[in-house]
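Moderator note: this is an archived Q&A kept for reference. The question asked for a predicted structure of one protein chain; the sequence and the answer are reproduced below.
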Amino acid sequence: MSYQILAGFLFASALTLSAQTTYLIDFNTTRTTSTFPGGASAWNVYAADTDIEGSAVTIADTSGSTATGITLIGAGSLTDSGNTETLDNGGPSWVTEGNSSNAAGDYFFTSTGSGAESFTLTFGNLVEDSQISLDLFSSRYTDTATGYFEYSIDDGSTWYGFSVLEKDGTATTDVYWLGEDTSSSPYRGKSDGDALGRYMNEIITLSGTTSLQIKVTDYVTGSGTYTVLNALRLTVIPEPSNYALISAGFAAGLIALRRRR
């Protein structure tokens, strides 16, 4: 019986450690006529930019749990919008249902002031050395919604771009993105997002840090231009050494039980 109890406990622990945890974020609540992929309760929904500015908010995973304590805070020219968005060709399944959804159909943006406006989103209380899969969706039916999307794991000292994927999750073969990312070439809210449902992704290792920053910056500096962010998906992949630890514990437990028997 002791052997069965220990084996069951260690197996359950291994499953817990190996489970990926996903966080879904919808920026804005202007669109209210359709549903959320996975159900509304799976999403962190922010009606206004002020909801995530000033002080950090704790985000919930898709099960509604905030046990991990991961936080989010926005800064810079983060701006609410009263507009809605309907996609020409649908979008990735994690953010759209048909040609729109509450999550894909509205957005925050960088404002339309003169100069290259930008804002940052900072996630805190992440697990050091874990891997993060980060997906961003940006879509607007105008050519003026074009900008750079970058991330940093060293408090903004170094910035890196995202890869662009087709809406089915495969790497785009568009020559515009050949050898480029969203740091070297601007993501186009109309031709990439609205017309083709593309999104951005990167697998990030949090080496020696527990925070992650995202920066959104206008491509064009003139007045009336802006860059939008409709929705975000953050998936935490457990640090590989956890598997080694649980395996070692399992082996040690079995050896101890055999010796006692």
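Archived answer notes: The chain is about 15% helix and 30% strand.
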